[in-house]
Amino acid sequence: MTPSRLAINQITTKSWSLEQAIVGYARAGVHGIGVWRDKLQQCGIGRARSLLRDAQAWVPSLCKAGDLAAMRAHGASAALDDCRRACDEAAEIGAPTVVFVCGGIGGASSLADARTQVAELLLQAAEYAAKAGVTLGIEPFHPMHAAERGCINTLRQAHALRQQVGPSAKVVFDVFHCWWDPDVMTYTAAPYTQETATVQLCDWRVPTRHPVTDRAMVGDGVADIAAMVRQFEANGYTGPYEIEIFSEDWWAVDPAQVVATCIDRYRQVTASAALAH
Q: Is the pTM of this model over 0.70?
């Protein structure tokens, strides 16, 4: 749980460009940065690679690919083509994982049909991911998003899908989406820790005012984050902890202050997990 394992997902400081985020995080002593593809494209892959190298930065994940429902509008092969591009981009900047957002129902005939189509897309993309040397990180979404944003909704479903796809897939554990899951402690234990690509930290605000852009800062909500971290650590997880905050409130704060808060809350939650252990 050393600071070297802390990353900040750049959506947390939404107003910063990729260049600004790399420099701003490194200035505060954080060298892990979760990269978003739109910011990467604005920066340019070659320049991003150079900036990451100069800052001695590492990238736990590249967000996002998949979203089958949204990609259907662009043609039958659009989702697969996008997954392949994302894998290439991840390989270029040294990101081991492409966050795979499954998408909602869209044009599928049912929720079950949407899930079948997601599995088919993952199976098609897996071979390309393996050749690129990256994994597809399946992210289960809170059930409130099943129709529109993510039809894979539990850790059990995500790990079953990961097992079906094979070694080119892992699971992205996002506290916002997973904290409520009755099986959450099962899937923070071995052997599932070894199949977790990244742990994204945030909190569940009460009351939650918006389904997407009202996440709480770590420690400001009701999720038992310390218990999850403690379980991950006790069962051999050695991967990154990536703070990812979608929040209109936090986006209005000076990004440098947001980064300082992220560092402080990471220290608090990891200390609490260690003391309880």
A: yes
